[in-house]
Amino acid sequence: MASQALSAPLAATTAAHDGRRRRELIAFAILLAAFAVLPHLVKDVYAQNVIVLTLMYAALSQSWNILGGYCGQISLGHALYFGTGAYATSLLYTKFGVIPWFGMIVGGVIAAAIALVLGYQLFRLAGHYFAIATIVIAEAGLLLVHNWDWAGAATGIQWPFVPDSWLTFQFGRDKLPYIYFALGLFAATWLVTFAIEGSRWGYWWRAVKDNADAAESLGVKIFKSKMAAAAVSAFFTAVGGAFYACFVQYIDPDSVMAFKFSLLMALPAVLGGIGTLWGPVVGAVILIPLMETTSSYLGGTGRGIDLIVYGLLVMVVALARPEGIVSLFSRRKAPKA
Amino acid sequence: MNAPLLQVDDVSRRFGGLAAVSNVSFEVGRGEIVGLIGPNGAGKSTLFNLIAGALPPSSGRILFEGEDVTALAAPDRCRRGIGRTFQVVKSFDSMSVLDNVVVGALVRHPHAAAARRKAAEVLDFAGLAPRAASPAGDLTPPEKRRLEVARALATEPKLLLLDEVMTGLTPAEAQKGVELVRKVRETGVTVLMVEHVMEIVMPLVDRAFVLHLGRELAHGKPADVAADPGVISAYLGDRRRAS
Amino acid sequence: MTAQIFLQIVASGLLMGLIYALIAVGLSLIFGLMDVVNFAHGEFMMLAMYAVFGAVVIIGIDPLMAMPLAVAALFVVGATAYLGVVQHAMRAKANIGMVQIFATFGLAVLIRGVSQFLFTSDYRNVPAERNLLGGKTIELGGVFLPLPQLVGAGISVLAFVGLWLLITRTDFGKALEATREDAGAVALVGIDKNRVFTLGWGLGASLVGLAGAILAIFYYIHPDVAAPFALIAYVTVALGGFGSVFGALVAGIMVGLAEALTATILPPALKSVGIYALYLGVLFIRPKGLFGSL
Asked: Is A204 a domain residue?
């Protein structure tokens, strides 16, 4: 078919697409700038900690969203990749003196490799079978690390105390470097998602999620698509885990591989809008500060009020806004009932 | 390149003990519009799935441009040039109409920008331009059928398999559908269409192939097929009597 | 491995396995009925354990006597969960699978929070003086059978027989079967789908409630007690095939045996390895579980 001039509505749609992409980049730049300035306005150490965690979970949820949101493969076992990154970095650093910057990459690559090996088996499973299998495999991983003496078993790994240094990415009191790294990680995951959304992989993954049969008939290789999504998702999740290890400087199996991390990675995306570019960060900005404050102000009572707030929040959001909070801002008309 | 575009060679498909398609053979030449007809449960959709690669045959071969494609999965057959629609529409409901078609266009245009351009052209061709930005989930049923055709066309097929694209359409909508199929053929695409609304198919197709209970009942020119006593009793007779 | 040890493994595995099957079957039943995985299933069990504990402490009856109470209470809990949460989750227009997962998961966290609020996170045991079976063991040809597990396994067998009779012999069972076959069509024959779902959730919760009541006899009770059992329940259901009652029974026993075997040959901390290995092994050969037909 020869290339002809497009009709007016299509030319408008195509132009709108390019315009939207440009506006999204601008919004992203503004968001980054805001986060870069924020720690200079909020000097409180506790608040800065919350900023680090918020950005970290925004990045983690953005990573989870690549597989869970775009490709539609609901993993409830991403704690495995988070732990892989944390352990790879910690072990390389404490046992072999390899700087964490390198450990992060190694952790990411190992996690991506694990995701490919697991995906090879798991992507044959449908729906709930897949979700449950991811839970079980992450739990099995947790159990193995619990009993892995060389890696500190249940006691975990304490990082040695060293002077503040960018080389070892260790800072005793200063939170700023962590904030900036977390911001950088979030930026990387956002940009990757942005690039994916505009590339063939983004189209393929959403097609696989919406209707696998139709996708196949249009030349999409389902298995390959899922594998690619899993590898990218696992890589960034592990880098997040590596960062977390650098940040807390002490890890044990339950503090990086427990089931709750798998959920904490999924929740911001679910809250903000699954399979959307802005959902994870919007969800994280609401969820993480809320959870951190309830658990420090109410959790200390030991009476579970933080759990009540958290449980209610998750339930209400899931029921009231299945498309997530960002759908409130989308200009798309609600489908006629 | 003298081989027919599509050769179905003694193909059978069984589900458990049930034979859905038994020893079917036929050919589709380049540039033809061939109708695959038959009453409900005749095995038309199964045969379609076998040709498109969604199902492997129990026995027999499928040849496309003279090459055996029996072992190829659906995505590879799409790459070879077999495009299809589904009887029950399978749109990507969370994506816009344009994005639905982009998925198809990506087969030949790996760069998303080029694929978007191609998809836009196909939407114009298919008459869906005004709906390009709508979520596919919001389309009316006739629009969804049109979207399926557009999506398959975007893969730039040599052979287009249309599975009951006229079903459920009003006569006026169906007439527009017929025009679209003619237009598709004019661009050089061969069409194999399953349909059981005979009044629509017969004037449109060059040849008809009638399937009944998984077996070939008749094939030939539409007029000859329509006059075939077996076909009349199996299928047309019921309809004529009913109307 | 001597014959003695082998028999002990089989006996222990069988007893716990029957209890695991009872924990899992409600989950499988609900899934088969309406394709929903209840992530609050373990929390239902925990509530039943507290119900038994409360009845023993407040009314002063034996935990065995408290069982019907716990079962009835959990029926109400299950039906309420359906009417209050799940029903709404099923009406979601987008991301329906996700909505179900996170709605029931939110419910689970909420129940845990409320339990912690009401009962604190202290570990509790049914008081020994009111616990007829607690801590008692009988010996049979050198094989030790803890009495609570033995009675519990017996109750589980009875419950499965009862469930089988309920499904095959009663009108409710027929409605249940019909609804799981085709929820859309049952409305045409005058079955109120919503009522069947409500009763189904009540039944599913009652079954795990019964299992919780059995566990309360010999296991400590606290708000987080359910997590490992819930995981076993998910494994059991996936292993047996989602929706299959018979599958849950067989898979539960297999899981119990696998656990007993691993506990004997590996350090106690690794006793779950056998369960995971069994599950993954089966799943890679049969992706839909042993009896899954979906």
From this structure: yes
- pLDDT value at residue A337: 31
Q: Give a three-class secondary structure readout of chain C.
A: CCHHHHHHHHHHHHHHHHHHHHHHHHHHHHHHHHCCCCCCHHHHHHHHHHHHHHHHHHHCCCHHHHHHHHHHHHHHHHHHHHHHHHHHHCCCCCCHHHHHHHHHHHHHHHHHHHHHHHHCCCCECCCHHHCCCCCCEEEECCEEEEHHHHHHHHHHHHHHHHHHHHHHHCHHHHHHHHHHHCHHHHHHHCCCHHHHHHHHHHHHHHHHHHHHHHHHHHCCECCCCHHHHHHHHHHHHHHHCCCCHHHHHHHHHHHHHHHHHHHHHCCHHHHHHHHHHHHHHHHHHCCCCCCCCC
Number of domains in chain B: 1
**Which residue of chain A has the CA closest to B161?**
A217
A153-166: pLDDT as tens digits: 888 888 888 777 77
Q: Which residue has the tokens 């109470």?
A: C69
- SS3 assignment, position B10: strand
Classify residue A274 as left (phi > 0), alpha (psi -120 to 50) or beta: beta
Domain count, chain A: 1
Domain that holds residue A86: 44-256
Find out whether C12 and C150 touch, Cβ atoms under 8 Å: no
Query: What's B170's domain CATH number?
Result: 3.40.50.300
CB contact under 8 A, B74 and A199: no
For B94, which residue in chain A has the nearest alpha carbon? A210
- Chain A residues with CB under 8 Å of C37 CB are 128, 131-132
Task: Give the predicted TM-score (pTM) of the model.
Answer: 0.89
Instruction: Look at residue B1 and tell me if it is in a domain.
Output: no
A314: which chain C residues are within 8 Å (Cβ-Cβ)? 102-103, 105-106, 109
The verdict on a CB contact (< 8 Å) between B74 and A221 is no
Q: What is the pLDDT of residues B30-87, one digit of tens each?
A: 999 999 988 777 888 899 999 999 999 999 999 999 999 999 999 999 999 999 999 8
List the structure tokens of B47. 């045969």
The total of other beta-carbon atoms located within 10 Å of residue C4's CB is 11
Quote the CA–CA distance of A26 and B25 in Å, as a whole number: 59
d(CA C270, CA B21): 53
In one-letter notation, the amino acid at residue A33 is: A
- The domain of B67 spans 6-242
* pLDDT for residue A29: 95
Interface check for A124 against chain C (CB to CB < 8 A): the answer is yes
Whether A273 is in a domain gets the answer no
Q: Indicate whether B69 belongs to any domain.
A: yes
Touching B: which chains, 3+ CB pairs < 8 A? Answer: A
Distance CA A195, CA C14 (A): 54
User: Given this model, what pLDDT does residue A330 score?
Assistant: 66
Does residue A218 lie within any of the structural domains?
Answer: yes
C69 and C51 in contact (C-beta within 8 Å)?
A: yes
Report yes or no: B135 at the A interface, CB cutoff 8 Å.
yes
pLDDT of the residue at A2: 44
